[in-house]
Design goal:
The chain is an alpha+beta fold. It is built from 1 helix and 2 strands, in the order ββα.
């Protein structure tokens, strides 16, 4: 497991979305990341549908 963060300090409201190398898993940090996570999923789907 690898920990990733956008900030040095712990920010519970920071937006952090991580996609694995194989683009099989999309995870986010908290409830504020829903839009960013959805956009990441849509980007993966659009890239793989071509």
């Amino acid at each position: 497991m690898v920990f990733e963060s956008n900030t040095i300090f712990r920010d519970v409201f920071a937006t952090q979305v991580v996609v694995d190398d194989e683009q099989r898993f999309v995870t986010d940090q908290n409830q504020n990341c829903g839009l960013a996570a959805a956009n990441a999923v849509l980007k993966i789907i659009s890239e793989n549908s071509n």
